[in-house]
Amino acid sequence: MAPLRVGFIGLSTQGWASNITGPALLHPVLREKYDLVAISTTSEASAKASTEKYSKDVGHPVKAYYGDSSKIASDPDVDFVAVSVKVMYHKDVVLPVIEAKKDFFLEWPAGRSTEETKIIAEAARKQGVRSIIGLQGRYSAALVKVKELLASGVIGAVRSTNVLAHLGGGLWPPIVPVSDRYASVKANGATRLAIPIAHQLDQLTHVLGDFASLSATDAKLYPVATFVDDDRKPTGETAPSEIPDHFAISGFLKSGTLVNIFWRAGYKIGEETGRRQYVWGIDGEEGTIRLESNARLGALPTINEPDLYLNGKKVELEVPGSNILSIVNAWSEFADGGGSYATIDDAVKHHELLDAIELSASEGRRVTLS
């Protein structure tokens, strides 16, 4: 089968797409299934720089587009369009791609609200196009092993699960990089709840099933955002924080499993504090599974591969995972026509879950999910 010819919107020479998704697309496994043929960025200069770089990487000329996404979407030499832009632009960028009847990849959160994500999903259904969403954390090598262990019955029936996470650095208050200011604006849809917490919730529900009901509490224990430069030195600018820095979420999955999740942010990090960055425990009647990471961004499961423990003993994986390999595995299954990768319909479901969390926190009541 001929490789899918890829047009990539947002593949510049720096940023997430350049550092992670682009290298994944150049991995030998994906080189057999995908061929990068076109790139679109926001300006003629950046498009030219990107296509010069990637033309060398793929070994043939790559077309340059800039501006309106309909240009690259309408290219007859493009079969599949990848979109990796800031969340505020997801809907407007991907809709022309769908209108051109092209299958697409779209980074999570696939729209800055449930309404936007539903618009994208409805357009995809209408045009009959396939989608894959950037929730590649479900392809983490550790998580794949967790699924195998659960399926084997080694820990017995799962009765409860708990998550303890600390996000000591990143895009959100109390410390905000000036270059990522957009993420601290709630209306932009790139909040702490929408990005790292949602990524972890995708992993949790992927292996244990969906929520039946939940209760949530959130708090702004750090009400002021301090802006820093690229060296993380304060610029002198501050602003009121728009988003919570602590979340406590509890509830039941449809399986009857009890869930308890606690996310916090803003505390000092480092080995001297003894503070754990990320611990996810799954308790069965016969044993326990634990995922753990003390990396600075260990609570971001799409960036760091956690250590895996079964009944307190570390499980050594035959093939260590990485964020690039997670993308490779997800895209490989998509090219093959089937798999457990996330779709735009999964994105809608997750946005509805995030809405339920925010509703419960704001009204102080349990919310039942459909």
Automatic annotation (TrEMBL):
Boundaries of every Gfo/Idh/MocA-like oxidoreductase N-terminal domain copy: 5-133
Entry's Gene Ontology molecular function annotations: nucleotide binding; oxidoreductase activity
Annotated ranges, domain Gal80p-like C-terminal: 143-293
InterPro entries: Gal80p-like_C (IPR055080), Gfo/Idh/MocA-like_OxRdtase_N (IPR000683), Gfo/Idh/MocA_oxidrdct_glycsds (IPR050463), NAD(P)-bd_dom_sf (IPR036291)
Alphabetically ordered keywords of this record: Oxidoreductase
One of the Pfam families matching this protein, by short name: Gal80p_C-like
PANTHER family: BCDNA.GH03377 (PTHR43818:SF11)
Name the record gives this protein: Gfo/Idh/MocA-like oxidoreductase N-terminal domain-containing protein
Lineage of the species this protein comes from: Eukaryota, Fungi, Dikarya, Basidiomycota, Agaricomycotina
